[in-house]
Amino acid sequence: MPPAPPSKSEDTPVRVEVEDLEVSFGATTVLHDISFQVDPGEIFVIMGPSGSGKSVLLRTLIGLLAPSKGSVTIDGQDARNPRTHEAVKSALVFQAGALFNSLSVYDNLAFYPREHRTAREAEIRKKVGETLRMLSLENAADKFPSELSGGMRKRVAIARALVMEPRLLLYDEPTSELDPVMAATISEIIGSLRAELQVTSVVVSHDRDLAQSIADRMILLEEGRIVAAGTPAEVLESSEASIQQFFHPDINVQQPRYRASLSNPPES
Ligand SMILES: Nc1ncnc2c1ncn2[C@@H]1O[C@H](COP(=O)(O)OP(=O)(O)O)[C@@H](O)[C@H]1O
Ligand SMILES: [Mg+2]
Fold first, then answer.
1. Confidence band of 244 (pLDDT split at 50, 70, 90)
2. Residue with CA closest to ligand 1 atom 2
3. Kind and range of the H or E element at 197?
4. pTM of the model
5. Does residue 49 line the site of ligand 1, with CB under 6 A?
6. Which of 161, 193, 210, 222 has its CA 20 to 30 A from that of 93?
7. Can you list the domains of the chain with their CATH numbers?
């Protein structure tokens, strides 16, 4: 008898499909005609100037915002249905980290597993310990967020998401407000997780070094529309003037609005 076809494992990374997506707030449409796919296990980077719709797109992927047209599916299931995200344990790493300031690093990591009663305390201790080690945070377990550097806080925010063993991990500006060395470290960590975990990653970022070093594929948004898509090499080497302007604001001053947006990292 031939072997049974492989069943969809609980541990496989997920596919994200966005089709003809439009998102509006009242009469204002902020995302237009957005279509792309993120393949299982891929690192997909969404870039664009401040206000171009990156965070709105991320919130729509995780089901916090509803499309006014089109669809978002995760392994074929509607992203608006909370069960879809429960099934794949989607996790969003917020720009500001959103750590609990009154809890130690250890308790920040243990918070969701305890809350969701997904594991016994002994298992939680093991998982939290492993995750702290993975992110070189084992010496920070008893510290409080206010005692940590910006880079360490970002690492704790990533660690807290990883404890839930997500199959879909979304990051909003993971390297913002970090110096270049720390930003490179965070990029490396995101890249290395691909090898260690069964996870699909979507990363919103302003950081072209991050895109270049870890993206399998990327899109560039401008005013809520995709203006470039492909591998980092394809997008970054595009000869299109507006794309060159975004990535090299110093060498082309014909469209100064990008200068302003790049020198002022977005708050949200
Ligand atoms: N809740 C909201 N209500 C109305 N407009 C919003 C809301 N959230 C975002 N917007 C608008 O959508 C556009 C895209 O915002 P956002 O996705 O946050 O941009 P960014 O690319 O900087 O992350 C902006 O013009 C912003 O003002
Ligand atoms: Mg944003």
1. confident
2. 25
3. none
4. 0.86
5. no
6. 222
7. 1-90+167-268 (3.40.50.300), 99-165 (no CATH)
